[in-house]
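Posting this for the archive.
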Amino acid sequence: MQKITLSIILFLCLLTGMLQAHNAVNFFEEYIDFSIDQQHFSVNGMYSFCNNTEKPQMQPILFPFSEDVSKIDSIRIDNLSSSNKIPYRCLNKSLAFEFIIQPYDTVEIHIYYRQPISTVNRYIITSTKAWGKSLEKAYYTLTANKEIERGIIDFSYAPDSISNDNGIKTYYWKKYDFMPERDFIVFLYD
């Protein structure tokens, strides 16, 4: 019970900090490379934030997962602008972390993780709504080998283009002024 109460308090503190910093900090673009194989659905993303004020801003982030954190592995979060690894705290279905953005500066955050493959492989992008502003740009790719590619039933967003190179199929999505109405999902046969 104490663990749940502590998680709720931490979540509320992070949410309050995020709401206060949203006017100062803008989440404006993301580039995410997804890959899917016989065992894992992997996410390799770069997220861009800018500070629109004359003061440094501490930016808390609550990064959601579609699975319980216990099913997620190989988590890595880096501040590419400072070349520093970012420590994080695991909550039930999310990670909490923070970073500093200097005045009128931009910070690139890199997040990598993987989760077990399933019939519904979900990446939560509807959380963008919490920022109150569309992404200026969102580019997504998904790579799948022949065995997995044959098992793909559908996507929550139709790909803009597809390439095939030596048995590896890559799907591409390019979105502008993008406010996601649904999550990014890859549906596979059971």
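Residues 15-22 have pLDDT under 50 and may be disordered. Residues 51 and 105 are 6 Å apart (CA to CA).
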